[in-house]
Backbone:
């Protein structure tokens, strides 16, 4: 019972604790959301129901988050003083202390009530058990009354004596569970007393003295008791159970309680109980049960007098007391007495630990919630302060960034402006009559100036990368032309070192791409510049393929021989540089690249060299800005150490990856990927553009011709074939001169030219002479031309000096389409033998009137000299106001180069005003205020204005286009740069000029 009670009460308390826990978890989760904590759940593991529940919980949390945010913002802001918040916090703590005390009192009272209920239930149950035991005892007493009546009064002499009675009652004591002893008292009249005492051998003793002065067992002596006083009748005890044998000879009618019991029992014929009193010799509370025994059978409706006359004796028992305090009513069949049972717990009630722990837990939770609220308010206040501080720092950072950009623009302009004058004047000086020493000095100064400009460009690029303002353009460009230009930049250095320089582009790569050609060119220049710097023998080889081609060939490509390279020297395998590429990993994006649309071109470019290689300890920091391979104080080679860092950033902006593999004393191979758009939307457009581009830019006089390449190295022969085929020439490759002789002597094939590698020609002079003689004997009707492919100037000069019979034409490497075409034209006597590019530009600029606006006299002189060199009529202006006057329509200028940063009025403002004047003039003509015939082509008046500034910030370029400028030329500029930019506007009318 107790366990069930405690369990039921625990459910109520647990429900209360669960509500409090839900509350504190809700508060904690709100605080978590306020501080920006978001739990990312893997909804993939949940079903649709779980996802709906998450969305529903997100809405509830979001609304609660907003409510708590506004509340916290109000509490945590400065609108509420700290004192009020402290008072609120103290009130919270005191209130919850009172609540916890109430919970303690309530739960303790509930426990007390439950204990009382338990005691009452147990006491009532015990009373029912006592009632049942009493009924059992009464049944046995009645049975014993019949036994005594039969064997004591029904027989003469009696068949029962004290010993028999004691033995019988002792053996049958278990049938009377509530009695401590049984005694039999007989009715004796006064007239029969003397005879009765003689018969029993003892005197009838009185009992009232013992009731007034009860004695213990050790103090009781029956012989010392007083005889019973004289009265009409006596009820002495003649038989008794051994446990109460001391009551033998006591007159039950001499006791107050016993006398009343005897008389009522005799009259009623039922058992009668006395009131509790201290029993003789035991000093314990007990009661006497009296039951009458009659001489003869009585009818059920016998009168009291009949019962009194028929009484033979009294039968009684002694009932023990349990000493309990709770009161339960008992019914023993006596209408004159009400019996009760008093019950109590022997142990003291235990401490109400559940109430104590619950109230203490509630108080702790309340204090924790108060602490959370207090910490949250302080946190929000701190976050708000940090936010204001962050916004202030952000404003400062933005101001500093603007100042930094302005500083870079100013520094760039201030450095580039004099550098433009220095390089321009040196270039003009090169066109004058100088002796060999003077030309060497000028070239050295010019190279130093270009190196300084390159350094400035790298530092500015690094600054833009750090500020996150480096952006790429999306323009159409010719990849092969760019790589040809890069080869031209490094051709002198490679020839001087005797290092073979080559480029190979797969035929699968489109001719035209869309991207940023300048930044792609910068990456290639950085990588090739490093290779040229650290390579003293062997080769530098640049290859361009589609990523799809490389991926398809990974499984079938075998490890090449260490000698199967461009120069025959071993190299670092480029495939090892792909190890960290996502493109080539199983979990990477290779499958994605293969499934992209055809408009995206994924290129992989490798720059392979046979240089010194990168030391193992320096390879981990190769892409770190301003880090050198060697010590800064003793390094052998110069440089800033930021070229590779910039290249890695540019590759990332092109959605590519870069890596390398380097083996000391063997060489280094850098590989990177880049994503461009296809510049030819369909194959027809691509083919038509390719044909027109080749026929115009490279010449088409060689179409239909056949060339024979003699080269034992397959890689080098592949490169030669690639460049010769760009001219429209069919190419065949053989490994030695004997095979070449067989091919040329075959009547079925007509060979127009034979290109022989220098090392093949120099290997055996006798074989070479024999080959020349055999060629002379061949009469194919076609003049066969011999060419040597030389790698260095020294080797070609040696060949010229040693060859006495026949001297073939020498073509210097690296091979490029324009250079190769010019060499073949000169040797074979076809096409334009001059410089087609310069001649074309000279024709385009001939007679053109160009205005140059710059506040720096040196820059004016440099630009004017460069343009006059190609036949242009140049006019100079020193300010924006003067430029506006000269370019106010109508005028005769065909183009204008305008400096941006000028005093009083900059180039932006001057350009805007010039465009406004042009619009006003057009409106005048359209309204009829001016005659159209007086001005040729004036209704579409728009003079090309090209920005000319030392500021290379991207924002400056955008501002130039916004204010109406048509192009952009950065300082220091070179003559060809001015030619290229201005010629774009004259190409449409070049036929008229020519």
Residues:
């Amino acid at each position: 019972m107790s366990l069930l009670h405690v369990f039921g009460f625990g459910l109520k308390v647990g429900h209360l604790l669960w509500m409090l826990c839900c509350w504190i978890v809700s508060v904690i989760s709100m605080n978590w959301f306020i501080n920006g904590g978001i739990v990312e759940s893997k909804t993939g593991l949940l079903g649709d129901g779980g996802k709906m529940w998450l969305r529903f919980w997100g809405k509830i949390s979001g609304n609660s988050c907003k409510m708590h945010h506004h509340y916290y913002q109000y509490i945590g802001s400065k609108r509420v003083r700290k004192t009020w918040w402290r008072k609120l916090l103290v009130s919270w703590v005191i209130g919850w202390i009172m609540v916890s005390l109430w919970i303690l009192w309530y739960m303790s009272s509930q426990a007390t009530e439950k204990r009382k209920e338990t005691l009452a239930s147990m006491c009532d149950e015990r009373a029912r058990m006592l009632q049942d035991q009493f009924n059992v005892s009464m049944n046995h007493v009645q049975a014993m009354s019949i036994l005594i009546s039969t064997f004591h009064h029904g027989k003469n002499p009696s068949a029962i004596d004290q010993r028999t009675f004691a033995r019988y009652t002792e053996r049958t004591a278990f049938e009377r569970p509530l009695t401590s002893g049984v005694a039999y008292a007989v009715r004796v009249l006064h007239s029969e007393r003397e005879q009765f005492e003689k018969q029993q051998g003892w005197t009838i003793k009185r009992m009232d003295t013992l009731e007034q002065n009860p004695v213990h067992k050790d103090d009781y002596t029956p012989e010392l008791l007083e005889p019973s006083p004289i009265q009409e009748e006596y009820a002495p005890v003649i038989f008794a159970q051994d446990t109460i044998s001391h009551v033998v000879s006591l007159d039950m009618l001499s006791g107050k309680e016993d006398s009343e019991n005897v008389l009522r029992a005799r009259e009623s014929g039922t058992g009668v109980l006395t009131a509790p009193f201290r029993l003789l010799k035991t000093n314990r509370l007990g009661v006497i049960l009296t039951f009458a025994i009659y001489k003869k059978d009585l009818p059920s409706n016998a009168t009291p007098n009949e019962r009194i006359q028929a009484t033979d004796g009294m039968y009684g028992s002694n009932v023990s007391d349990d000493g309990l305090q709770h009161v339960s009513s008992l019914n023993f069949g006596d209408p004159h007495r009400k019996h009760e049972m008093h019950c109590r717990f022997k142990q003291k009630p235990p401490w109400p630990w559940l109430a104590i722990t619950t109230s203490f837990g509630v108080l702790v939770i309340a204090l924790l919630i108060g602490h959370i609220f207090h910490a949250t308010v302080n946190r929000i206040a701190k976050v708000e302060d940090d936010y204001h501080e962050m916004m202030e720092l952000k404003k400062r950072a933005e101001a500093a960034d603007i100042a930094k950009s302005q500083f870079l623009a100013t520094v760039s302009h201030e450095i580039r402006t004099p550098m433009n004058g220095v390089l321009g004047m040196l270039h003009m000086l090169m066109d004058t009559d100088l002796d060999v020493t003077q030309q060497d000095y000028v070239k050295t100064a010019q190279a130093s100036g270009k190196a300084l400009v390159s350094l400035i460009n790298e530092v500015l690029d690094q600054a833009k990368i750090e500020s996150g303002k480096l952006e790429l353009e999306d323009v159409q460009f010719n990849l092969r032309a760019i790589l040809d230009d890069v080869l031209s930049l490094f051709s002198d250095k490679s020839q001087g070192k005797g290092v073979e320089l080559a480029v190979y582009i797969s035929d699968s790569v489109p001719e035209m791409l869309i991207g940023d050609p300048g930044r792609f060119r910068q990456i290639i220049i950085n990588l090739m510049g490093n290779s040229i710097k650290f390579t003293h023998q062997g080769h530098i080889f640049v290859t361009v393929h589609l990523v799809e081609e490389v991926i398809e060939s990974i499984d079938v490509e075998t490890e090449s021989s260490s000698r199967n390279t461009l120069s025959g020297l071993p190299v670092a395998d480029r495939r090892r540089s792909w190890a960290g590429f996502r493109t080539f990993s199983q979990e990477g994006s290779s499958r994605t690249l293969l499934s992209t649309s055809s408009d995206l071109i994924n290129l992989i470019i490798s720059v392979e060299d046979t240089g010194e290689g990168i030391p193992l300890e320096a390879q981990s920091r190769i892409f770190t800005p301003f880090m050198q391979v060697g010590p800064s104080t003793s390094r052998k080679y110069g440089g800033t150490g930021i070229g590779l860092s910039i290249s890695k950033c540019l590759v990332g902006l092109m959605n590519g990856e870069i890596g390398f593999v380097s083996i000391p004393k063997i060489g280094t191979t850098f590989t990177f990927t880049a994503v461009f758009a296809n510049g030819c939307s369909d194959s027809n457009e691509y083919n038509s553009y390719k044909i027109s581009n080749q026929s115009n830019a490279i010449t088409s006089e060689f179409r239909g011709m056949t060339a024979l390449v003699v080269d034992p190295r397959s890689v080098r022969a592949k490169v030669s074939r690639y460049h010769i085929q760009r001219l429209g020439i069919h190419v065949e490759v053989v490994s030695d001169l004997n095979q070449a002789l067989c091919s040329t002597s075959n009547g079925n094939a007509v060979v127009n030219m034979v290109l022989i590698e220098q090392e093949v020609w120099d290997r055996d002079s006798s074989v070479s002479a024999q080959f020349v003689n055999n060629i002379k004997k061949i009469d194919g009707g076609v003049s066969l031309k011999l060419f040597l492919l030389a790698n260095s100037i020294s080797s070609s000069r040696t060949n010229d000096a040693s060859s006495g019979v026949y001297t073939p034409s020498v073509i210097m490497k690296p091979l490029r389409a324009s250079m190769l075409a010019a060499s073949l034209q000169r040797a074979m006597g076809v096409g334009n033998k001059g410089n087609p590019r310069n001649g074309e530009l000279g024709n385009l600029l001939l007679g053109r009137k160009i205005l140059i606006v710059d506040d720096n006299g040196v820059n004016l002189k440099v630009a004017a000299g460069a343009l006059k060199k190609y036949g242009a009529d140049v006019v100079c202006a020193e300010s924006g106001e003067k430029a506006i006057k000269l370019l106010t329509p109508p005028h005769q200028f065909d183009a204008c180069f305008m400096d941006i940063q000028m005093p009083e009025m900059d180039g932006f403002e001057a350009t805007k005003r010039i465009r406004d004047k042009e619009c006003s003039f057009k409106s005048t003509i359209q309204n009829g205020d001016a005659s159209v015939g007086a001005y040729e082509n004036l209704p579409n008046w728009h003079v090309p204005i090209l920005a000319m500034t030392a500021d290379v910030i991207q924002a400056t370029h955008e501002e130039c286009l916004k204010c109406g400028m048509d192009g952009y030329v950065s300082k220091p500029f070179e003559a060809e740069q001015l030619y290229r930019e201005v010629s774009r506007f004259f190409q449409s009318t070049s036929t008229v000029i020519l």
Observations:
- The chain has 29 helices and 27 strands.
- The mean pLDDT is 75.
- The radius of gyration is 62 Å.
